[in-house]
Each structure stands twice: as C-alpha cells, then as structure tokens.
Amino acid sequence: MTDRQNPAVVDRGGRSAQAGGTIIEIQGLNKWYDKFHVLTDIDLKVSSGERIVICGPSGSGKSTLIRCINALEKVQQGRIVVDGIDLTAGAGNIDAVRQEVGMVFQQFNLFPHMTVLQNCMLAPMRSRKASKADAEALAMKYLTRVRIADQAHKYPSQLSGGQQQRVAIARALCMTPKIMLFDEPTSALDPEMVKEVLDTMIGLAEDGMTMLCVTHEMGFARSVADRVIFMADGKIIEQARPEEFFGNPQHEKTRAFLGQIL
Ligand code: ADP
Ligand code: MG
Q1: 91 and 252 in contact (C-beta within 8 Å)?
Q2: Fewest CB atoms less than 10 Å from the CB: which of 10, 27, 196, 210?
Q3: Per the database record, which ranges form the ABC transporter domain (predicted)?
Q4: What value, to the nearest 5°, has the Cα angle with vertex 168 and ends 199 and 170?
Q5: Residue 205: partners with Cβ closer than 8 Å, 6 or more residues away
Q6: Which string of DSSP letters, residue by residue, matches 104-130?
Q7: Which residue owns the Cα nearest ligand 1 atom 19?
Q8: Ligand 1 pocket member 74 (CB < 6 A)
Q9: Cα(43) to centroid of ligand 1, in Å?
Q10: 262 residues of the chain, pLDDT tens digit each
Q11: Ligand 1 contact via 58 beta carbon (within 6 Å)
C-alpha cells in the first residue's frame, strides 16, 4: 500500500491519534425512527485520510449511521460536525456538508434516462454552477480514473453492475468530496464484478481519501482499513485495527458475527 498518509493509531477504545486532524466528530448521537431507538450513544471521531470499515449484522444501524453523516437522516440528539460544519446546528449547513461528502449506495442510483457522462455532469452544474465544458472535463477525468471513460455515452442499462457502480463512484467524485461514504457498494453485484469495484475503492484509499465503508468484504477491511468498527443493536460494540479486530475480537457478538461471515 502506497501513500498511507494518515496512519491513524487506534487503541482498543477506538480513539484515534488524529494524524490528519479530525474531519468527522460525532458526539452522543441518538436517533429514533418513531419510537424505535435505532442509534444509541454513538461517539465517533474520524481523522482526515482515515479509512474505516463498518460491519455488523443486518439491521444494526450501519446505513442509518452513515446516512446521518451526509444529513440524509434527521438526528434527535447529539452533535455531528463534518469538516468544521455543525450538521446539527441548522438546515443551512446541510447543503454545505453534502458538497463535501460523496455517497455510493448498494443500488447504484444512476439516473436511467441520462448517459454516463450526463449523470456525472449533473451535480457540478446544478450545485456548483460549473459550466458545461468544465463539468464535462471533470466528468471525463473521473470516468478515466475509474477506467470507464470509453462508456461515457452509454446509458446505465447498457452497462454491467460493476460498471454502473464505478460510474456511481465517478459521479460522487465529480463533486470533489473530502469524504466518501460507501454503503455496501458490492452487495448487489455478481461475484465476478466485486473485484473491479473494490479495486477502484482501493485506488481512492491509496490517494488518501477519507472513507467510511459499510461492507462485509473482510479482505478489503484487512488490507485497506485503518480501523474496523463493529455495530450491533444500534451501538458501536467494538473497534480496532484490522489485525486486532480479526485476530482477537473481544466481544461475544463480534465473535459470533465473524464466525458467520468468515
Ligand atoms: P443496517 O444498515 O445495519 O442493516 P439500518 O440502518 O438500515 O441497518 O436499519 C436499522 C434499523 O432501523 C432496522 O431495524 C431497520 O428496519 C430500521 N429502519 C431503517 N430505516 C428505517 C426507516 N426509514 N423507518 C423506520 N425504521 C427504519
Ligand atoms: Mg444497511
């Protein structure tokens, strides 16, 4: 692995040594869906350049947590600060944060009636008021980076799942985010397409992108993550460096989970 810019040192409690300064700070986060307490007392600090993998059983609140970081979910209690912007301090900050945080979903969510290129040009033109020429140049730059520039004029339905997910990554990168959130980006893919998407993510990690990835790809976690976070029942149960996490899991629930997926 080249260019590990911020090898954050993480202790058993998951406190990071902030080699790159804190870019995300979550304190005392609690969230309910109606009466259902979906996230309980979440504290999380992420250093700039840090790569975090979040895993845990289905329904444990992983998606909800990362959606909170992008202000896709309303939070009832606690504080979330992303790159100095307090998300919990007012609606005006939500747009600002979304400009800095890119998100990639399990179901690529590309616009079906737009070409690959148009999908990538849309947000910079709408949110950043980029000119058409600038947006196109940016889109081609990132499509080249995910090695799919030759498909720029096709429609999403003409691409494989792996190709569509790489377009979704390029589309997010076109907003030049400081942080990328991935929510099970390979779960909907046929097995033979998983690697091309993971390789794209590894490339991003090597370039120093701050990344939070919900994934059960434990090979990816081992080779890329600075820290693995395990969630169950809406709580962070355990977090550690990958070698510690996989080699010596502390919590009974972590061991049960790893026993199932490894
Ligand atoms: P995970 O990503 O770990 O599978 P989620 O964050 O998607 O977990 O969901 C956590 C829990 O919250 C689950 O029990 C789920 O059914 C519930 N949940 C998720 N989204 C909503 C919603 N919009 N309204 C009500 N309950 C929800
Ligand atoms: Mg989920």
Answers
A1: no
A2: 27
A3: 24-258
A4: 70
A5: 1, 51, 211, 224
A6: E-SS----TTS-HHHHHHHHHHHHS--
A7: 64
A8: no
A9: 19
A10: 333 433 333 333 333 334 579 999 999 999 999 999 999 999 999 999 999 999 999 999 999 999 999 999 999 999 999 999 999 887 778 888 988 999 999 999 999 999 999 999 999 999 989 999 999 999 999 999 999 999 999 999 999 999 999 999 999 999 999 999 999 999 999 999 999 999 999 999 999 999 999 999 999 999 999 999 999 999 999 999 999 999 999 999 999 999 998 7
A11: yes
Q: For residue 157, with 0-12 CB atoms within 10 Å meaning exposed, 13-18 middle and 19 or more buried, which class applies?
A: exposed
Q: What is the ipTM of this complex?
A: 0.98
Nearest to 48 by CA among 209, 206, 224: 209
| Ligand 1 proximity of 215 Cβ (cutoff 6 Å) | no
Query: What span, in angstroms and rounded, lies between the C-alpha atoms of 90 and 247?
Result: 42
What is the CA(134)–ligand 2 centre distance, in A? 35
Q: Where does the chain have alpha helices with state H?
A: 62-69, 92-100, 116-127, 132-145, 161-173, 191-206, 218-224, 242-247, 252-261
- For the CA of 184, the nearest ligand: 2
Report the separation in Å between the CA atom of 133 and the middle of ligand 1, taken as the mean of its atom positions: 41
Ligand 1 proximity of 157 Cβ (cutoff 6 Å): no
Ligand sitting nearest the alpha carbon of 31 = 1
Ligand 2 centroid – CA 15 distance (Å): 24
Nearest CA owner, ligand 1 atom 12 = 38
Lookup result for tokens 């890329």:
224
What is d(CA 106, CA 148) in angstroms, rounded to the nearest whole number?
19
